[in-house]
Amino acid sequence: MLHSPRLTSLALAVALVSGASLAFAAEPVKPAAAVAPTTVSAKAPLPLDELRTFAEVLDRVKAAYVEPVDDKTLLENAIKGMLSNLDPHSAYLGPEDFQELQESTSGEFGGLGIEVGMEDGFVKVVSPIDDTPASRAGIEAGDLIVKINGAPTRGQTMTEAVDKMRGKIGEKITLTLVRDGGTPFDVTLARAVIQVKSVKSQLLESGYGYVRITQFQVKTGEEVGKALAKLRKDNNGKLRGLVLDLRNNPGGVLQSAVEVADHFLTKGLIVYTKGRIANSELRFSADPADASEGVPLVVLINGGSASAAEIVAGALQDQKRGVLMGTDSFGKGSVQTVLPLNNDRALKITTALYYTPNGRSIQAQGIVPDIEVSRAKITREQDTENFKEADLQGHLGNGNGGADRPSSSKASGTSKKERPQDDDFQLSQALSLLKGLSITRDK
Description:
This protein is of the alpha+beta class and about 450 residues long. The chain is about 25% helix and about 25% strand. The two termini are about 35 Å apart.
């Protein structure tokens, strides 16, 4: 799928993250020691004066600070300060942050498989995820989780409760549930690997599909391919148009962004990167296969579309494969490499900038959509027409034998199922554009 002779283990480590999110982990990488320093840094003399100052500050803090501080804490804080002052996306990751980063990009974690919310101070089950310990144990939507391992959840934040339900795979956990106001009962279940999908899809109308990517995880490219196949199957094998929704997508793994773009492109460059260290200059090109079958495409972006989402949007815009609609994107055009360290820690450090096929760097500028459509609220007015010919008693039938079409107030079963585009102005505009493109294409 990818044409990149220089795709090394370091390249596989490249991850893209938004300025607002914590981080998204990359695939396994070499330890930090495996990354060769540049010739310039290898020959540069040690800054002895600055090192003496550092040692002096360390000694003074240990001796004079109001409370005792151990060497480990001081040195870790020094490392954090060194990374945090480089740019907003470089960071030193402790064990918890590193684990969270790995979970967010892999889309897998040890848990129970429950989507939860809050109600009256209690944790409420929104939905059990299919084929998980929660669904197999019979937990139902609407159940209140009042205790976790005997500890009341009332007064806890949802984040605190979720952290307690996540943990080591195979470990057992007991939830105390209340269903429909009844008597509390216990359910004991074992944590398992939970997979979170980053892609959602459905038909908006007959012939028009919708694919939303919430973030770019390791398996996102594969999920988009499956979503496209299912949409075609659900519409008798052919689509007339497709909306790709990248709004509020903070980014993720570079490799997945390339794979997603490749589903819609048959040739040409997708993205390339430039940096200082060896193997940081990479080029990714499209494979001739076209999972989208050339269907008319509208891509939705906004100020929350960052990094990997901007790579996909920029490639499709430069290659004139789709129409970008919405508002300017976030503007994060840097690449972060995750370098594991000892003791389950890691460095997340900016190593390169990426460029769209036409050589655009979107760093601190963002991508401008082809058609600007701001977010707006849809307010539908009630039809004041309450009476039609078909409502009149004894009316004549249609000359061609067609069925009567009485007013909505007279028709039975006229309540319409809510669709995503009914309350989403940008999405409704994208669908309208697709219909126009489809009409033009058919002529």
